[in-house]
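User: Sequence recovery, please. Input:
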């Protein structure tokens, strides 16, 4: 609680009416009692005051009642005081007549001052209530903030731990490679370790970006008509190594016919692979994992069932919240940030679907049920995306990137050099520039077919570089692919507005990049035998 809060609190305490004045009846009783007390004291003072100062003590009774009893009782005390003064003090005694101008004047003053005092106390009471309400709100906010702060600290510690986990084996693997005298088997194993751990790092970063996207309401899907069976198969591909590693038995039960939904293939694959990798992770070695797929009228139902550690009943309602971990000790052992299911829930909601969990408790396995609306007209041709992919494959079986002239612009020299080296393996002719001006300088000499352009360049950003490249007249304009750490629709729109053709998020998967380069209109015609390529080496800018 801060300074002003504690001052408010003390003030509110001081202003709070006494306990015996809490209910209405006792407040009005207090008004009567205060008037009687004032009358009694005034009578005692009669020998000294005679008929002077008739209302003096009634001021006190009104003010006391306003303070301790509130507005209504104070008005009562004001009226009772008038009657008591007229009856007991003002002459003639025992009558309510006030004749004397001086007494009338005193009565008027008593009324005005009494009314002002009551109004002031009324205002004070209203303010006190407002203070108290505000105080409660502040206290709730402060509790929530401390809780959020604690969760953030916990999350940062967990994140650091989760990032360090893959970094340690990567460092050891690189130390091993530095020794140079390791055999072929060891070399393959070391390379696999690096790739596995790198994939894990990429997954963590992707999850963080997804969470940030949905917290900002910027997660979008690109729905198309897809077969859920193919989604399960794709998801299975990504978790296969884990599945085999853990020696789990896996069953996939699905109808013979395709199960069509209107969905985003990549995002739904992410959902299923998340559920599958959790099932694998939270099931002791040699367990049983089953995926069932059914179509029930207007709905499709996909279930991922395991016979693993299960989830306590009380943890199940909150399991899809961010950072939720049903069994922290187990999660610590297996790693995890508590983001996966929150992302799953968001993606499901974007598809107008639902996701539920059921477990009979610890040690009794878990069942996650994903329900999505079935796509209409389920007997139509397969979706356009898969058809397009197949067509491409059959139309241009021979197409390769051999001889393609690729300019890589990235201020991270290591990133640019390694990408250039990889493309050189595929017989591309590459050139590297580490900033915008040198990229533009070499652009016309090199005449690239493809420019891979980082967006965050020092001095002149990638958008400007792309605009200037587009402004130059070249016989054959290059395909410009933005490569950046930032994803999302807004960036995509900006890159297109700057004249770029495509956008990839770092770290770029080389096979994805190659197939993208092959699919770009204009690139296929650029292929030529490696011998025809001009001999510009894959050198970096000085
Ligand atoms: P995490 O990265 O911690 O796995 P998730 O959001 O994917 O994050 O899962 C949240 C929590 O739900 C996990 O920490 C785990 O306690 C619990 N959980 C998820 N799937 C399963 C499962 N198949 N069996 C048991 N517990 C699970």
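Assistant: Recovered sequence (542 residues):
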């Amino acid at each position: 609680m801060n300074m002003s809060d504690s001052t408010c609190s003390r003030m509110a305490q001081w202003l709070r009416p006494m306990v015996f004045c809490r209910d209405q009846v006792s407040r009005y009783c207090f008004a009567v009692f205060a008037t009687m007390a004032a009358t009694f004291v005034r009578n005692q003072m009669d020998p000294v005051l005679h008929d002077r100062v008739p209302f003096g003590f009634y001021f006190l009774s009104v003010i006391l009642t306003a303070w301790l009893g509130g507005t209504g009782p104070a008005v009562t005390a004001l009226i009772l005081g008038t009657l008591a003064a007229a009856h007991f003090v003002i002459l003639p005694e025992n009558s309510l007549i006030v004749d004397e101008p001086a007494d009338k004047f005193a009565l008027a003053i008593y009324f005005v001052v009494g009314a002002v005092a009551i109004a002031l106390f009324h205002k004070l009471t209203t303010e006190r209530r407002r203070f108290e309400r505000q105080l409660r709100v502040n206290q709730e906010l402060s509790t929530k903030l401390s809780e959020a702060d604690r969760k953030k600290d916990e999350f940062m510690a967990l994140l650091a731990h989760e990032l360090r986990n893959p970094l340690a084996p990567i460092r050891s693997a690189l130390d091993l490679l530095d020794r140079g005298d390791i055999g072929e088997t060891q070399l393959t194993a070391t390379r696999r370790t690096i790739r596995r751990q790198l994939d894990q790092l990429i997954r963590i970063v992707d999850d963080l970006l997804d969470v940030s996207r949905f917290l900002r309401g910027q997660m979008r899907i690109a729905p198309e008509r897809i077969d859920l069976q193919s989604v399960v198969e794709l998801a299975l591909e990504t978790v296969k190594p884990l599945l085999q590693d853990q020696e789990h038995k896996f069953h996939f039960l699905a109808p013979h016919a395709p199960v069509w939904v209107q969905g985003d293939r990549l995002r739904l694959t992410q959902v299923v692979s998340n559920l599958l990798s959790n099932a694998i992770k939270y099931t002791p070695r040699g367990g049983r994992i089953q995926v069932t797929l059914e179509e029930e009228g207007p709905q499709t139902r996909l279930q991922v069932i395991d016979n693993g550690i299960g989830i306590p009943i009380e943890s199940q309602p909150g399991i899809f919240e961010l950072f939720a971990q049903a069994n922290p000790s187990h999660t610590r052992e297996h790693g995890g940030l508590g983001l996966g299911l929150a992302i799953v829930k968001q993606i499901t909601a974007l598809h107008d679907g639902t996701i539920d969990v059921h477990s009979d408790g610890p040690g009794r396995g878990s069942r996650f049920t994903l329900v999505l609306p079935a796509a209409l007209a389920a007997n139509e041709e397969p979706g356009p995306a898969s058809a397009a992919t197949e067509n491409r494959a059959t139309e241009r079986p021979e197409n390769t990137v051999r001889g393609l002239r690729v300019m890589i612009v990235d201020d991270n020299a290591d990133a640019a050099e390694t990408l250039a080296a990889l493309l050189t393996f595929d017989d591309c002719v590459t050139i590297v520039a580490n900033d915008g001006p040198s990229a533009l300088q070499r652009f016309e000499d090199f005449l690239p077919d493809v420019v891979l352009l980082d967006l965050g360049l020092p001095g002149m950003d990638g958008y400007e570089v792309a605009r200037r490249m587009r402004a130059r007249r070249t016989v054959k304009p290059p395909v410009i692919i933005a490569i950046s750490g930032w994803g999302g629709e807004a960036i995509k729109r900006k890159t297109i507005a700057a004249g770029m053709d495509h956008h990839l998020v770092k770290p770029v998967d080389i096979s994805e990049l190659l197939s993208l380069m092959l699919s770009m209109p204009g690139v296929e015609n650029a292929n030529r035998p490696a011998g025809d390529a001009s001999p510009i080496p894959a050198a970096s800018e000085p």
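The chain has 17 helices and twelve strands.
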